[in-house]
Amino acid sequence: MNQPDLFQRTPSALPPVPSEPLLCLSIRQPWAHMILHHGKDIENRTWPTKVRGRILIHASKGMTRQQYEDAAWFAYECRRVHLADCWPVDLPRGGIVGSVEIVDCVQHWDSPWFGGPWGFVLRDPRPLEFTPCRGALGFFRHNARLDGQEEAQ
Fold first, then answer.
1. What CA–CA distance (Å, rounded) separates 67 from 55?
2. How far, in Å, CA of 28 to CA of 43, rounded?
């Protein structure tokens, strides 16, 4: 019986590429950065979701100086996180910056990041190479693979 050689890069040995566009969620910077690099394990929203599984994180284009300063202050007060690694001019905006798993949606959570009224519980953040794209309110679909490459149509 012929067994596939898993050390050869044949089409059958490659990991599967999603056949459908992945769900994305737009998140303002520096919050998206804190999810990917500083342990922010909740995304606070005013609405609940039934979405579970890996989604792409889209960094919104908009971010005022006041929004950045408020988030930086909260991060320091909440987790003693200094945002010295992400000055406003260095934060990528207007595209996909990473992925994360949504594992639950809660109204109460024992996390310093929880502010409610709803929180999407996040796990396993993975930064990705920046991919420019338009965002949207709520969840939206985007044709990208988790390795940052555009999916062939």
1. 24
2. 11
The number of residues making up the chain comes to 153
CATH of the domain at 46: 2.30.130.30
> What residues contact residue 78 under an 8 Å CB cut-off, 6+ apart?
112, 113
Residue 14 has pLDDT above 90, yes or no: no
pLDDT in tens, 92-102: 999 999 999 99
Q: pTM for this structure? A: 0.77
Domain region containing 49: 17-142
Q: Rounded distance, CA 120 to CA 48, Å? A: 8
Domain membership flag for residue 89: yes
Report the domain count for the chain. 1
Domain assignment present for 85: yes
Type of residue at 12: S
Please check whether residue 152 lies inside any domain of the structure. Answer: no
CB-CB contact of 94 with 60 (8 Å) = yes
Does 95 fall in a domain?
yes
User: Residue 28: phi, psi to the nearest 5?
Assistant: -70, 150
Contact 102, 122 (CB under 8 A): yes
